[in-house]
Amino acid sequence: MKVAIVGIGLIGGSLAIELRRTGLATTLIGVEANPQHACRALEKKLVDQICDLADAVGQADMLVLAVPVNALLHLLPVVLDQIDRQVVVEVGSTKEKILKAVADHPRRGRLVASHPMAGTEYSGPEAAVENLFCGKNVVLCNIDESDPDAVEQVKKMYETLGSRLIYMDAASHDLHAAYVSHISHITSFALALTVLEKEKEEKAIFDLASGGFASTVRLAKSSPDTWIPIFQQNRHNVLDVLYEHIHQLKRIKQMLIDEDYEGFYKLIQEANAIRKIIH
Predict the structure, then answer these.
(1) How far apart, in Å, are the Cα atoms of 87 and each of 21, 25, 144, 237, 244?
(2) What is the C-alpha to C-alpha distance for residues 118 and 20, in angstroms, rounded to an integer?
């Protein structure tokens, strides 16, 4: 199978590595707007060749769109305009606006909407790693709007990579993603800004930083080019989660003001219930 990866960053590059490793792809074609990223993708042998979108569409059996979600809004209709039999897979972190943009497209059935719940705080082709998707959840959205053969091909791909498949409608996906992913990044950005404001001497941060701080603030290294479009497209859900998060922070703040450590103790016990969800 010839696969074209449009956007050779963390997800696109890691997917290229796994498609080659598992033998799912016989040829990997790259489409990359950033010339430096294109050169690096070739140097790292993530893809066999770099070409423009029209050439990639003409050669490929499957196209994977791994670009920021704001770019997907414009790219997806263009790709669907050009394809015939090919399967198109998008891997964006939001779904509702993207799928609405192509809801009436005559080739909508060739599109399969997916969101691999995998990643790191790094970006670009240098961030591509092996086994990124193994053991991770992949959400497939609105599969009833996709052609059965396209869905089966994408399912086979992710299952071969060791992923667990979950099925949701686009609205549910965006709501749940706001709770488990998008708010985590906002919290990490806020914590990083708080520490950087209070600790003007960076050396003190590095001297005292331990595993707990590093893991909590890790996501603050994520690229704004990726995350601002996500927050923009999922603004309603992110704000809903943010209001609740701020409410919980205010509860904690008030308990400290009141020196209500018994109440704080009980609050932490309530939070410990997350163990039932995350092991």
Answers:
(1) 21, 14, 15, 30, 40
(2) 19
How far apart, in Å, are the Cα atoms of 217 and each of 157, 196, 205, 277? Answer: 33, 11, 12, 22
CB atoms within 10 A of CB 194: 11
What pLDDT is attached to residue 214?
76
In order of their start, the domains of the chain are 2-168 (3.40.50.720), 173-276 (1.10.3660.10)
d(CA 261, CA 238): 30
- Compute φ and ψ for 204, nearest 5 degrees: -65, -40
- C-alpha distances in Å from residue 72, one per residue of 62, 93, 100, 122, 263: 16, 11, 12, 20, 47
User: How many angstroms separate the CA atoms of 231 and 210, rounded?
Assistant: 29
Amino acid code (one letter) for 22: T
**Residue 216 in this model has a pLDDT that exceeds 90:** no
The single-letter code of the amino acid at 8 is I
**Residue 209 predicted with pLDDT over 80:** no
**Type of residue numbered 70:** N
Residue holding tokens 């809004």?
A: 73
Closest to 82 in 3D by CA, of 105, 104, 66, 115: 105
User: What are the two backbone dihedrals, phi and then psi, of residue 27, each rounded to the nearest 5 degrees?
Assistant: -140, 135
Q: What mean pLDDT, rounded, does the chain reach?
A: 93
Angle (deg, nearest 10), helices 224-233 and 235-257: 100
* Cβ-based neighbours of 187, under 8 Å, separated by 6 or more: 245
Instruction: Tell me the torsion sign for CA atoms 57, 63, 69, 73.
Output: positive
3-class secondary-structure state, position 140: strand
Give the Cα separation of 175 and 88 in Å (integer): 24
Residue 78 structure tokens: 């263009």
pTM to 2 decimal places: 0.89
3-state SS, residue 126? helix
